[in-house]
Amino acid sequence: MVDEKKVKKESWTGEDVEVLGETYAEGKPDTPVLWRKKFKNREEMLKYLKSGERYWFSDDWYGSEKRKTPA
Fold first, then answer.
1. Is residue 49 part of a domain?
2. Which ranges of the chain have pLDDT less than 70?
């Protein structure tokens, strides 16, 4: 379970606002992630893997990662 840590910070208007701090669980997982069990059939699994390959190994970027000007 992750503890929500709330931190007070100053907003751009000068008001104090409550924001979430670190919300991740530290350490390593106790059990391995069994990603294959998320899918009902082979087609869903292949679709997941192909979209991952497109993301990592493509020259073109998709969605929010697409840049207007190259880096």
1. yes
2. 1-4, 54-55, 57-68, 70-71
